[in-house]
Each structure stands twice: as C-alpha cells, then as structure tokens.
Amino acid sequence: MKEKILTKNFGLKNNYKIEVYLEQKGYQSVRKALKEMTPEQILEEVKKANLRGRGGAGFPAGVKWGFVPKVDKPKYLCVNADEGEPGTFKDRYIMIHDPHLLLEGIIITSFCVGIHKAFIYIRGEYEIVAQRLEQAISGAYERGFLGKNILETGFDLDVIVHRGAGAYICGEETGLLESLEGKRGHPRLKPPFPASIGLFQCPTVINNVETLSNVPAIILKGAGWFCRQGLPKDGGTRIFGVSGMVKKPGIYELPIGINLKDIIFKHAGGMKAGKKLKAVIPGGMSAPILRADEIDVKMDFDSLVEAKSMLGSAAIIVVDEETPILEVLKSLAKFYSHESCGQCTPCRIGTSWINKIVKRMIQGKGKKEDITAIHRLANNILGNTLCPLGDAAAMPINSIVEKFSEELESTLSN
Amino acid sequence: MVKIFIDDKPVEVKEGTTVFAAAEKAGIPIPHLCYHPAFIPEGSCRMCLVEIEGMPKLELACSTQVKEDMRIWTQSKRVIEARKGVLEFLLAEHPLDCPICDKAGECKLQDYYEEYGLFDSQFKEFKEKREKKVNIGENLILDCERCILCTRCVRFLREITKTQELGIFNRGVYSEISTYDGDLVNNNYSGNLVQLCPVGAITDSDFRFQIRSWFLQKGDSICPLCGRGCNISIEYHPGFARIQRKKRVYRITSRKNPQVNDFWICNLGRYEYSYFDENRLTNFISNIDGNNKGLDQESALQFMVQKIRKLYNTKKTSRIALILNSWLTNEELFLVSRIFRSDLRMERIFIIDPPQGEKDEMLLTAERSPNRKGAQEIGFDFKALNLEELSKATDMVIIFGEYLINQFNASEIKTALEGVKTKILYSSQDTELIPLVDMVFPTAIIAEKGGSLTNCEGKIQSFGPVLDSIGESRPEWQILLDVGKKLRINFHYYSQFKSPAAVLEKMEEEIPFFQKEK
Amino acid sequence: MSPEFSEQTKKRIKEVISRYPKKEASLLPVLHLTQQEFGYIPIEAERSVAEMLGVKPIRVREAITFYTMLHREKMGKYHIQVCSNLSCSLLGAEKLIDYLREKLKVEPGETTPDKKFTLSTVECLGACEEAPCMQINFDYYGNLDKKKIDSILADLK
Fold it and tell me: Is C80 in a helix, a strand, or coil?
C-alpha cells in the first residue's frame, strides 16, 4: 500500500511524550510551515490537496478556512473531538497514539488562519484520552511548540482541552459552539456561518481531529503527493473503523476509493465464523444502510452518494443474517430520540414518535400502518429541521424501511 | 430596494428584509409560532418554511433575507406538506384540552389546524405526561403538556426584561419550561407572557375559566394609570340578554405601538381595571337641605352656573377655587382653561393627582396620571395646594376627581370646606369625599369617553369611547361644554364644538404645542 | 450556604476559569470539577457555580439537565455504563445488561443498596472495535462476557 499518513506512529510506545515524538523527526511540518511558508501558501496547498472533512459532512477544509474574513476580531479554532457518531472510534486512536500529530495540524492551521487560541472539544466519556492529550500539550509547551513566540517566529498559540458532558448534538459544529460557550448544546441557525460569526461571535474554524491530523503530511509532502494517496478530487487516506460481526474489528488506514468489500473481507478478516453478511452501514449510523448486494462500492464521498448513502465518518458496521433488522431499527430510533436536543419541532417529536412505534413493534404489537407511518414521519423530518441531526435520523431509518420492508412486515402482529 | 416575487406577486422591500416581513408588506400571511418581531429569529418551530426558487431545501421565512429577483412560494405542494407535517408533530404530543383551555378561540394551533391541517390523528402511542398546573408567577399558570417549546416566554424574559426567570430543562421530547425552584416570574411585565404564548401553555389566573374569548369584544384605548400612555385593548362583554354578568371588562391586553410601548404593557395597566366597575358613582347626588332638595343633574348644573355668573358679574370670581387632575383629557383641560382662566379670570386653580409611585426601567413612570404633560402644555402649573387656600375660596369650590382624599384626610377637608358656601364634586368613584360636598355629578372614566392624552414624552394620542357610560354619568367634556354655553360669556365659542375631535382641532390652532406636526 | 469546595478544587476552578475569554464558557469544566469533588452536583453548588461565573443559577441547571454525564443525585461509588448502541447490540450487549441486572439486583438508572454500584445503559462510547463494552467511572472495558464482568466487578473495592 502507499505510505501511511495517520497511523504510522501508532505502534510506538509512549509516543505522546514529546521526547519520543521528537526522536521520530516530529514537528518538522511545523518548522516548515512557520519558517518557510506564508499563511497564503499554506492555504493554497491545503486547497489543492482536496482535503475533505473527516467528521462526517466532508466539506473541503481549505475552502472552509478561506471563508474566514480579515476582521479585527480574535479568531478561534475548535477541534471537534466529540466523536459521537455510533460506530466511530478513529479519533480516539489518533489522540491516544499520536497526539502530537494532531497538535502539529492544529498549529499549522492556526498559523494559516491567524488563530491564537484553539479549543479541543473532546467528548466527556474520553476522560483518559483527554488526560493523554493534556500531557502531550504540556510537553509541546515545554519545548516551545505552543505558547508565545513559537520557534522564534513571533506566532503565539494556546491550546485548551475542553471536555463535553454526554451529548451527541455537541458534535454538530454550532451545537459545539453553544456548548463551548457554556450553554445547552442547541445548534444555531445558519447563515451566519461559524467562519464569520462563531465562538463568542468571532470568526471560528471547526475541524475534525482526523482532518487536522492530515495537514502535516500535506505540508511536508505537498498537495500533489497527498492527492495521489487517494483520489484526485478526494485526497489522502481515511481511517476506516470496522465493527460488528467481522473477525477483526478495528481501525484500518486505507486509501480513499478502496472498495467496501475489500475492507470487510480482505482487511477485517471477513465475517465471524458461521455468520453471513446481511447489511452494512458504511459511514457511521447516520449513513443509509446497504444491503448485502450493494456493498460492491468505492469508499469515497461521491461514489457513496451515488449509491444513495454517504461516507460520513467512515465507520463501517457489519450486520449478520441472524440479527433481526428490527434490532438495527431499534438502535437507530432509540439513539436519535435520546440525542435530539429538543429545539425544533420535527426532530424533537418525530424521533420520539418513531421510537415509540418501533418499541411497540419490538413488543410484537406492530401493524402494517406502522411501517408506512415510520416512512411518512421520517419524510416529514427530512429537510425540515434546524440542524442535520434530523436528516441523520430520517435517512438511515428510511433506508431500512425501504430496503427491508419484507422482513419488517414479517414481525407484524396482523 | 430589491424587487422580489411572493406567490407571483411583485414586492419591493429594503435590502436585508426577511421573507416574512416582505410577505407581511405584500399582505400574504405566513404561519409562525416561535417568531415574534420583538425577538431575534429563533427558527425552531419550523412552521414558516417556504419554497424559494433555486434553493434545494425549504427555507425559513422568519430568518431568510431577500435578494434581488428572489421567487418565493408560500402555498406550493411542498410547503403545504411541510406545514401539515409540523402541525401533525405538534398535535401528536399536545393534549386535547380545547374544551377546558382558556386559549380556545385565539389559539394559533387551532387556527392553523383549521386552515392548514384538517387531518385525522395518526398518533397511536401514549403522549408524554407532564405537570399541568404549575404556578410560575403571581398571575401565571404553566401547563407543560400544552407547551410547544416555542421559547417565546424564555426569550422575552431574557431579551426584554432581562430577568431570566424561565429556562429549558432536560433534552429532546422531555424538554420542559421551568422556573428555578422558588424564583418565580414576579416582574412587572409578567402578564405579557400570557399574550405571547401562542397556545394555552401559559395562562392568566386572573382570566382562568372566566369567559370564552369569542364572547369578548375589543376596543382600542390608552392606559391612564401612568404617564406612558401605553396602547391597550379593553376586552369586554357587551351583555347577554339571558345571563347576568357581574363585570363588563374581563381583561386588558396590549396593542402594538413602536413609538410608545412596543408590544408590551406593565402589570399595573394590565390588572388594575377594578375601578371600571367597582365603587362607581352612577347617579347625581345632592346633599343640600332646604329649598334645593330634590335637584336633578340638569337643574343642579343650572344652579351652579347661576351662582358662578353672579360672582362673575360682581367681579368676585376670586372667591372660587377649582381643583383639577391630570386624568382629564387634553380637550377637557383646554375647556377648563378657556372657561375658568380666560372667561372667568380665576387664579385659584390647582392640580391634584394620585401620589407618585416607583418607576421601572421599562414603561412605568413615577407619575401615576396620564396627562401631566398635556396639562403643562395647556398652561397649568402644578403649584402645591394647602387647605388654607381652599378655605379662602369662601363662595365656591369645584373639585374634579377624587384625588383630594389621597392627599388629605376627610376631617381635614371637612374643616377646610366649612366656610365654603357651595361645594361641588365631579367624580366617577364613590369615596369619602361624597358626604363632604353639596353636589356630586357622576362622570365617565377614560374607557367611556373620547378625547386625547399627551404622554410623558409629548406624544398626543387620541382615543374613542369603548364602553357605554353607566347610569347618569357623563364625560367631563360634555359637562364643560354645557357650563361654557350656559355661562353666556362666550356662548358661540363653545357652541361650535360637537365632539372632542372638534375641540382638538381648535387646540391645534390656538396652542403651538398641539399643532398637527406632533 | 454553599457546599465546601476543597481549597485545591477552588484553586483549580479559578485556574480553569482564567483560561477562557469569557467566564461563562468555563461552565462545563467547572461542573466536571464540582462533580468530581462531590460525586454529583448538589443544589447549593448550582448557586455557587453561577456566582463564580456571573450567570443566573437557572442557566447552570439548564446545562446540568441537558448533559447526560452530569448528575443531580449521588451516584454509587462505581458507575457502570453499558453501551446499548448498534455495534455492542450486535455482539450481545442486551444479554450482558440483563446479566448485570440480575447480578446487582437493580434496574438501569438505579443504585445498589450498599451504594457501591449504579447501573446505566448509555449510547455509543466510541469503542466499537471492542464491542460489547462498558465504562466504569472513567475506565473503558471491552470484549466483555459474563466471566469478564464477574472478574472486573470483583476487583472493584
């Protein structure tokens, strides 16, 4: 395979300690960016690399940074380490096994956009990970890679680890901003976009952990190299997280565009003994489900959109034939109804209503109208909500109801 | 200015206007629940979704700004589907309380269901059970099952009164509005929450179960309880033939006026309307013994005028004292000025008002009468009254209003008035003053007459009568016109006025402050 | 009548507040410190925290009731949070939850009478490659089966 970008240090012991990281020629990209490049050059390079967001939405990072206006206000970087999308665990690995790679990405991004304060919003459950991050940050401060006058370039940057407290909606960028400001995580109306009005009403860049961790490689090896590791319009690799009924669940850094079948059967060892594949969720729970006959698909943003699903957080959940599809639907309905913030009508009541119907179906009291009802309700949520959580709930639920209608009907009482 | 099309209708609006405001200008209503012009758009009810050409998803009318050549559809198939969807979600977890809910008849959910819904319920699950009668403030009852979480109440207390008594607890479908334990909503503007709430979640305990909203008639008026002159609606029951109602007025609500009170009124103006019906003087009262017993109002007025004429002819009008108040309208004060200052050349004229109170940071002024500025501009001064002055008016004391009893006690007044030959009172309220005078003429309250008032910032606001006068009571302007004519000093001048509006027109000519530009 | 924060915690809270451009933004970190100090967030602490941050107490409670990791009631010494989301469900989380219910004799949301264990079901913990998994206080445990659970709980004093 082509070179590993993100996981190359994962086997190193104590890599979070600055001395160990520096031994691997660490912080070279920071030196190059801060001492040999201008912010405009860095922005150009990242744009050319076609680095798309690895959090779920897939928005091009360079374009996002370019939206930040040149105003006389402090600017902020929020690193989205909330990792709430079910099935996703890749950012946890980066932060535990190579936190300095993330810090390098943070420093270069901040230098490019003119940011002097970065917050790492990490989900509250990742307390041990947060402590590891703080140790790495401490080391970086000690050696002058953070704080005042980094590498004698006059550039200042502070990084603060901010723990969440158990809310999936705080992984949504404006929900994250509200939470970081000390309030309930209620997403905001867009426009205005965070790039102009974000944290404390100031221009803010919000990027996922994995997205930022790719920036050092782009700086060191160039945009062209980065694109060649993946696809021309979708540069680099992804850390695919495989879980469910496979022999070897775990993380696999592979080029963007690799076939889903290869990930499951070549890398993750195929199905567990005696299990047959029924369905795959390709991009975290919010991605519409794929039937067994639909998994011959390339894992990149555009191909999956064509297949009526999405790459999302590249979290692959493999479902076997013995698992009733109603169980999968139950997990979905329960999750979104539990995580809905409650602000807007369709999501607040729609997800709860669907959950109540599914609960009734699980108890064996489902009727034919219930399946059409779920479909209708999901369509009433789709596109009508304040933030993408509504769509994230409606699309996968719809996909199950559409693709597995026969199996669902067999669970009905009439 | 930009030109846009709403439902094919061209509209021109300023740049930066929202679709909602543009539609309002074009006369096209867009249903909305969480949106309120006084607050920053929230975008959470999703009721105002409209279709905009070129945009893939439906967009919110309340927060989307128009651009040149935008084409907006408010009745397309997609929009109607979305509205029905939102309504269905709201009604799914909404209790079927209409038969016992005060808001029925003026409830947005009912109205929108009638216009955009009319579908059968498909909700076959159990609705969430919540508290239905939470006391969240002095006059406020919260029903959490009816609440649709539009958060207008929370935002009002955050953005307008800045007191933040209400908040949202829990998450998702379990979200609820609540106070912080015992910190209830007890600020002077809490009554506005009842009007703000689009459904019957926040109701007024003052109004609870009193009357159905569709039996009420509304009339525009001005609140007279302080110098602000907030615009109000008096909501009253015109009277059912078969059913005896104990009171006429059931509630006072606020009317929008961006130059005076925005959308709000304070609790004083909202709840202090007992004086409309309680302790009212309805009949003329005569306390005189001897020849003049058995006077009626008409002949009593004649009697008074004759006495004044005699004093005028003998140049002894200095023996008359006049007590006024600034609850009188501009027109009434003007007529008083013409009659008693100009025609009769009197000097013993005093203004006695209700005592001042605490002002607050929003609307309520310290002065508790509506027309002090008007009185000032018409030329009256507010020199203090001592009772000695009153007793020097040996021939006649004419008192308008009952506020003398707020400043002095009954026995003091009685002593002061002992040497006065004729004591006349014009009042709407039954107070301890009644036995102290010779004649009492019942007068109408502001809600029962027309005229204008000048608020503390100099704004002149005209209003008409909302309620009928009761019993024999008459508005002061009518009484004064009669006095003016009967005095025969300037008969033709007073004959020209047939209404308060005519008087105001004259004031515009004679007093610069009242000229039309104001 | 504020609860007594230890001097060390008071110092840490002060330091945390100073890192943020606006005091209010430090709400979640301060609440975490409060919960670590007392095991939950007492009502009196709501007012203390509100005062420290210059906000109204109602805002503090709004946040506490929104976030699932913040508790208004005392938890057991060990808070067992079992993931009930999809990947863990596929690998038998339901059976393990039932096993814990039987073993501890409590329902999810309840605490054992000796106040040692509180059992909860939670959504995805972000450790799906080790499904089925659970979190006890801050520690993750994966690849669970009944035997493993027995051994883990036995080790918790």
Answer: strand
| Range(s) of chain B covered by CATH 3.40.50.740 | 285-514
Q: For residue C153, which phi and psi values (nearest 5 degrees)?
A: -65, -35
Distance CA A24, CA B34 (A): 56
Query: In the structure, what pLDDT confidence band is assigned to residue B308 with cuts at 50, 70 and 90?
Result: very high
**What is the three-class DSSP state of B68?**
coil
Domain with CATH 3.10.20.740 in chain B: 2-75
Q: Which residues pair with B251 in a beta bridge?
A: B235
Judge contact between B387 and B402, C-beta under 8 A: no
Q: Which two tokens stand for residue B213?
A: 């909203």
B198 within 8 A of B106, measured Cβ to Cβ: no
Among residues A57, A397, A394, A45, which one has the least CA distance to residue A208?
A57
Q: Which of B165, B171, B180 has the CB atom closest to C61's CB atom?
A: B180
C58 and B171 within 8 Å at the Cβ level: the answer is no
DSSP state of B383: P
pLDDT above 70: residue A376: yes
Give yes or no for C112 touching A (CB within 8 A).
no
Instruction: Specify the CATH number for B285-514; select among 3.30.470.20, 3.90.230.10, 3.40.50.740, 1.10.3210.10.
Output: 3.40.50.740
Beta-bridge partners for C136: C80, C139
DSSP one-letter string for B14-67 = -TT-BHHHHHHHTT-----SS--TTS-----S-TTEEEETT-SS-EETTTPBP-
pLDDT tens for A208-262 read 999 999 999 999 999 999 999 999 888 899 999 999 999 999 999 999 999 999 9
Mean pLDDT of B318-337: 95
> Hey, are the CB atoms on C59 and B164 less than 8 Å from each other?
yes
C-alpha span between B243 and B259 (Å, rounded): 41
Helix (H) / strand (E) containing C136: strand C134-136
What fold, for C78-154? Glutaredoxin (3.40.30)
Supply the CATH classification number for the domain B2-75. 3.10.20.740
3-state secondary structure of B132: coil
- pTM of the predicted model, to two decimals? 0.94
User: Distance between CA B51 and CA B59 in Å, rounded?
Assistant: 6
Write the pLDDT tens digit of every residue in C97-145.
Answer: 999 999 999 999 999 999 999 999 999 999 999 999 999 999 999 999 9
List of domains in chain A: 18-228 (3.40.50.11540), 237-320 (3.10.20.600), 325-409 (1.20.1440.230)
Question: What dihedral angle (degrees, nearest 10) is formed by the CA atoms of B492, B495, B499, B505?
Answer: -10
Indicate the CATH number of B92-204 among 2.40.30.170, 1.10.60.10, 3.30.70.20, 2.170.270.10. 3.30.70.20
Looking at CA atoms only, how far is residue B186 from chain C in angstroms?
15
The C-alpha angle B264, B268, B274, rounded to 5 degrees, equals 125
C-alpha to C-alpha distance for A98 and A92, rounded to whole angstroms: 10
Size (chain B), residues:
518
Provide the 8-state DSSP code for A265: I
* CA A64 to chain CA centroid, nearest Å: 16
Please answer whether residues C49 and C31 qualify as being in contact, where contact means their C-beta atoms are separated by less than 8 angstroms: yes
Q: What is the dihedral of CA A92, A97, A98, A102, to 10 degrees?
A: 10
CA distances from B486 to B191, B339, B444, B489, B493 (A): 47, 11, 21, 8, 12
Q: A-B interface: how many C-beta pairs under 8 angstroms?
A: 92
Token pair in block for residue A233: 């319009």
Q: DSSP string spanning B193-240?
A: HHHH-SSTTEEETTTTTT--GGG-EEEEEE--SSTT--EEEEEE----
Confirm or reject contact between C72 and chain B (CB < 8 A): no
Instruction: Answer positive or negative: Cα dihedral of A19, A21, A22, A27.
Output: negative
Interface of A with C in 299-318 (CB under 8 A): 315, 317
